[in-house]
Amino acid sequence: MTAMWASMSVLMKILWGITLTASLIFIVQTVMTFIGADSGGMDTDLDGDLSGDVPDSALEDPSNLGHTGMNLYTFRNLINFLLGFGWTAIILNSRIKSTFLLVLISVLVGVGLVVAVMYLFKWLSSMQQTGTINLYKSAVDCQGSVYIPIPGHREGEGKVQVTINDSVREYNALTDGDALKTGVQIRIVEVINANTVLVEPMETIII
């Protein structure tokens, strides 16, 4: 193993390092997602004031409530890209002599993997929510944690992960108070619209 590592070029050593690191992070993210643990600290944005009552369309089709959006610039998508890019470059390195062509194909595979995973999660979310009208009524008072930081005083949206009907779900989120950092424990106090909820930190709740 040591001899093989020593015989690699600097580029291949970098590729292996990036790919193995991305693979490890991906495994951790996947395990944490399935066990319902807080993975918010591993997924933040790299990149409006909303208000109003819940529309009738949301009552008729509550599947919209759990829509997670299609935000491209997240750490999770970066990991997915590095997985596709890294493993493609490693596997095809000995077969494709042109560095430019190898990088181009690897980039395309990485981007394709990101898009595929985004649409897969969107499809799974819509399938999971279909026909569960009780979910909408059950959202208020459910607890969870901040997934992507939420600006204070409804100045922008973040994301939260909450447990509803024994299932972990993601929502766009606003707050009336100060900004909420990733990992802060919250509860839903109101449904703003079909995709967005209003939350408050748990420490503000007086028992």
Supply the number of helical segments: 6
Mean pLDDT: 75
Task: Kindly name the structural category.
Answer: alpha+beta
Q: Strand percentage, roughly?
A: 15-25%
Low-confidence stretches: 37-70, 130-134
> What would CATH call the class?
Mainly Beta
N- and C-termini, Cα separation = 59 Å
Number of strands: 5
Strand order of the largest sheet: 1-2-3-5-4
Pattern of helices and strands: HHHHHHEEEEE
Question: What is Rg?
Answer: 20 Å
By oligomeric state, this entry counts as single chain
Can you say what the CATH homologous superfamily is? Nucleic acid-binding proteins
Overall CATH architecture: Beta Barrel
Counting structural domains, the number is 1
Largest sheet, in brief, is:
5 strands, mixed, barrel
Annotated CATH topology:
OB fold (Dihydrolipoamide Acetyltransferase, E2P)
Description of the molecule:
The protein starts with a helix and ends in a 6-residue tail after the last strand. It is 44% helix and 17% strand. It has one domain: Nucleic acid-binding proteins (OB fold (Dihydrolipoamide Acetyltransferase, E2P)), CATH 2.40.50. With 207 residues, it is α+β, with helices and mostly antiparallel strands.
Please describe the topology of this protein.
Elements lengths: L1 H6 L2 H26 L20 H5 L14 H18 L6 H31 L3 H6 L4 E6 L9 E7 L2 E9 L9 E7 L4 E6 L6
Helix pairs in contact: 2-4, 4-5
Describe the structure in brief:
With 207 residues, the protein is α+β, with helices and mostly antiparallel strands. The chain is 44% helix and 17% strand.
